[in-house]
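Sorry, can you check?
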Amino acid sequence: MRCVELFTGCGGLAMGLSRAGFQPQRMIEWDRHAVGNVAHNKGRGVDYVEHWPIEQRDVREINWTQYHGLALVAGGPPCQPFSIGGKHRGHDDHRDMWPEAVRAVREAKPRGFAFENVRGLARAAFSDYLEWILLSLSMPHIERREAETSQEHLERLRTLKRTATYQVRFQQVNAADFGAAQKRFRVLVLGVRKDIGLEPPVLVPTHSREALLWDQWVSGGYWRRHGIERPSAGPMAVDTGTLRRLERAGIQPAELPWRTIRDAIADLGAPGTPGVLNHDPQLGARSYPGHTGSPLDYPSKALKAGVHGVPGGENTLSLPDGRIRYYTVREAARLQGLPDDYEFVGSWSENMRQLGNAVPVQLAEAVAKAMRAVVGVI
């Protein structure tokens, strides 16, 4: 179950792949701070990380042919070209690395691939480019010619669909539906080589908002587990229609409840608690229209890196008493599913940037297990 990974970052996707049984042969990341954090934890002997072959390199320098026929090529190409919080330049952005993802598939000819990105990629403004990505990954052998424009290449790909060597599936997901304590909407591009004879998997959610509403406001089990008195219906229970439907049905949803921020961080103690790695308080949090903190008893808003540094509201927590504060690095790592012994070095803002770019481990592991069930069939 060998794999290679492009754009490793601080290791969220890699952790999910490793937990699912994939064995990384090469991991490429150009950002020295992210590589530094992975290397630091590799040296500390953190589970799985100790075996990661991380390199600080530009993926454009790598020849992938030496990995011909491995199980999986994976990665999260830089999302800023398509992010709602970015500059929206798409394929005109020099940070667009989807062509490198396609090249890795072309050269390695893996049994499958798994790429993750922001849901902004699915916007109408990028429809042609999304089609180019999907067609290029289904036919990686059809390269863009030297004098060919991107639109001309797309038109040629459209006429050559019969030559596809990979089946490709595009799916929009929410990380909260797979156990992350964070509403993080992403897109997945999954592919399986046609000669394997199996379809790319469809991820089926394991957690749901309805199950959380039941747990909090119908059964009350959520509050009992946390040892606190059930409050009057809070701001996240305003969907009275769903509540009435659940109460009338009297049937608990089959999925697990969405995990809340309280579920994820309650046992850490207050920021500054001795003995907890990276749990130092960060002062200066504020709330303003469009950038309010995340309620404690609901999944967090998506952590963001931001084009111009760490944004305000998205990386803050709203406490029941009305106070607002920044997440500590450890709390953010919990929201992304990284283990407590994974230690971040450097500044709060740099580490929050890395966490804002990471793939939640819970989602990564769900993707990896689904892909293993397909590409692991020999």
